[in-house]
């Protein structure tokens, strides 16, 4: 097997398009649409929605996705899927493209992927494949993962303002716990909710509703950080505004899914402006940036 691809494997915005050859599986090829709005229009739309975050008062809790939100892990997931799917002859043995990964895999939970990727396989065989893929991911992630820029500052701000917090993810629990441990956030998160341990995973609202219940907070006093369309739809369906992290997925995709605003990382000034507005409304100490 070739050496792991570097973390800059993905294109920064829309991924490169690689034509898909016919596949022996019944998984449909993705819709390779490249229609986009100008970046200035996307930024204007993002900023115009900022009031939905700033209007939360009092803010009681923040909920975080994990993959792509705490860490930039999608390149590692993509690499693991690309190599292992090629080994079993998926897509006629042609490596899956970044576009295929974003459209068909990113943000989905493994039980769903069993049916999406392997509709003709025995379910136990498909589950075993995905379990093996997660083992490969954890091995690579332990060596390569880094936090999204500004995460430490945001976590300190959350603690300083005594906000409740939970991690809500479609990732398997071993992945979630490993990433949280690598980041040193075991004591930061008061609750970890796993999609497969709920009645329905994201994009359904169940994981976020479970987090709200577990923390004892309402959707009207909480917002979410998410990086995928699936996760954003789940947060919105649970009644909360969602800040999209465009770590890898296109900004338009996140806005179309319902994100209130989109940022590249936690250092962006528009995020801190919104947080400052929140604490002003609650009479708390001004945010330092």
TrEMBL record:
The protein's required cofactors: Mg(2+)
Keyword Nuclease: no
SUPFAM superfamilies referenced in this protein's UniProt entry, alphabetically: HAD-like
InterPro entries named among the record's database cross-references: Beta-PGM-like (IPR051600), HAD-like_sf (IPR036412), HAD-SF_hydro_IA (IPR006439), HAD_2 (IPR041492), HAD_sf (IPR023214), PGP-like_dom2 (IPR023198)
GO molecular function terms listed in the Swiss-Prot or TrEMBL record: hydrolase activity; metal ion binding
Keyword field: Carbohydrate metabolism, Hydrolase, Magnesium, Metal-binding
PANTHER family per the UniProt record, alphabetical: 6-PHOSPHOGLUCONATE PHOSPHATASE, HEXITOL PHOSPHATASE B
Protein name: Haloacid dehalogenase-like hydrolase domain-containing protein Sgpp
Organism the protein comes from: Sesamum indicum
Gene name in the database record: LOC105167313
């Amino acid at each position: 097997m070739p050496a792991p691809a570097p973390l800059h494997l993905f294109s920064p915005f829309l991924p490169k398009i690689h034509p898909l050859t016919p596949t022996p599986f019944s998984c449909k090829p993705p819709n390779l649409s490249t229609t986009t709005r100008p970046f200035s229009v996307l930024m204007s739309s993002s900023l115009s929605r900022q009031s939905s975050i700033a209007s939360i008062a009092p803010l009681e809790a923040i909920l975080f996705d994990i993959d792509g939100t705490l860490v930039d892990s999608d390149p590692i997931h993509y690499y693991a899927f690309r190599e292992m799917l090629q080994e079993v002859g998926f897509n006629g043995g042609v490596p899956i493209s970044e576009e295929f990964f974003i459209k068909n895999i990113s943000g989905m939970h493994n039980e769903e992927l069993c049916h999406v990727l392997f509709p003709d396989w025995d379910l136990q065989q498909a589950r075993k494949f995905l379990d093996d893929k997660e083992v490969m991911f954890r091995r690579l992630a332990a060596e390569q993962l880094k936090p999204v820029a500004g995460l430490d500052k945001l976590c300190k701000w959350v603690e300083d303002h005594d906000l409740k917090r939970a991690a809500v993810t479609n990732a398997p629990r071993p992945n979630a716990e490993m990433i949280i441990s690598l980041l040193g956030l075991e004591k930061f998160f008061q609750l970890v909710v796993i999609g497969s341990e709920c009645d329905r995973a994201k994009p359904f609202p169940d994981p976020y509703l479970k987090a709200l219940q577990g923390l004892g907070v309402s959707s009207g006093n909480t917002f979410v950080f998410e990086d995928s369309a699936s996760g954003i739809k789940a947060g919105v369906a649970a009644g909360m505004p969602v800040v999209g992290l465009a770590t890898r997925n296109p900004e338009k995709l996140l806005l179309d899914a319902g994100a209130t605003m989109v940022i590249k990382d936690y250092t962006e000034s528009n995020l801190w402006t919104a947080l400052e507005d929140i604490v002003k409304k609650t009479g708390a100490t001004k945010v330092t940036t």
